[in-house]
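During the second half of the funding period, the structural biology subgroup turned its attention to how the target accommodates small molecules. The most pressing case was copper (II) ion, which had performed well in the primary screen but for which no bound structure existed. We therefore specified the complex as follows and requested a full 3D prediction, including the ligand pose.
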Amino acid sequence: MTGAEWQGFAVPEMHCGGCVKAIEAAVKAREPGALVEAELETRRVRVKGLLTPEAYKDAIEGAGFDATVI
Ligand SMILES: [Cu+2]
């Protein structure tokens, strides 16, 4: 995980803890070692891992949420 940076995503449809769990599961399915922090108040997700922003965006969208790289 050396060199990994936090990457931010706006996920406006993330409304509750269930959404957060689904998003975390989707990202970790793509990269089991990824760190995921979701903040409901701002509807933002931060991911720290070795994949590209597009890969995480794709994983989040695969769980049914629009995501924008920020
Ligand atoms: Cu929800």
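Two results from this model are relevant to the next phase. The beta strands are 5-10, 35-39, 44-49, 68-69. The chain is about 35% helix and 25% strand.
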